[in-house]
Amino acid sequence: MTIIEKIHTLYPEMTKSEKEISEYLISHRDDFIKKSIKDIADENGTSTTTLIRFARRLGFEGFRELKKALCEDTVISPTLTSKFNSINYMSGDRLLADTINQSFRCIEDTFTKIPEKTLDECVAKLQDARRVYTFGMKESYALSHYAYTRLYTVRNDVFILDVAHGDAESLLNITKDDTCIIFLFHRYTKTSVDVLKAIKKTGASIILITNEPVDEIEKYSDILIPCVVYGSGIKNTSIAPVCLLDYLCNVLAVKDPQKALNRFKELELLFENQETLGN
Q: Closest Cα to residue 3, out of 52, 53, 76, 92?
């Protein structure tokens, strides 16, 4: 069994700190191998003692033995292969149960870490903004589009930034009166970070939805919401950020129900007339 498979198996019983270290290891395997135990502890806001306990939790005598085994895993079994192997390790029944249970854990672990004040601030930013923009690239583009389709049902002037497909000019329309929801999940591209920096310069409010660690990008956000996205399959899961978006849109609708209802009626009328519009 590889180290990733061991983490899959032991994750439900891990402490909060151990789960955070697990997520860091999976997202930054090379850093975990190359950096010292002190550097890793500092980056994760934990202690070297906790890292040693984490190594022992995985069945190693100490942290050095864990790093050595991780090097061998990297040579023998690349990350993608390891994920496929972790699925093959499960039976069909267990795979379904593990997928569902891990989704619940991601939602629970995400929302227990988000202060209620932070959620209230997000709602206020989305409610008071002149315009709302959503942005994400690669797999985060799906979340950006999902946010767009949810938000335009409860308020006007919602736009998706499609920079990946050549719409860089739309960045020129963003002002300090706008709010941007940015999705940046590992492994994010340099272009994504460049767009984040460009939006920061406009003075617009930035709600950054991402996963740990956040050291390199936290400074570009006004509101930071880390989500737990570690899945039990070959890819990470977006269930927590999707749930977060549903919640924010529901609160916006409740905050101003008449406005949301009027918007919904406008959209329904538009959809009813789509056949006419197409002729």
A: 76
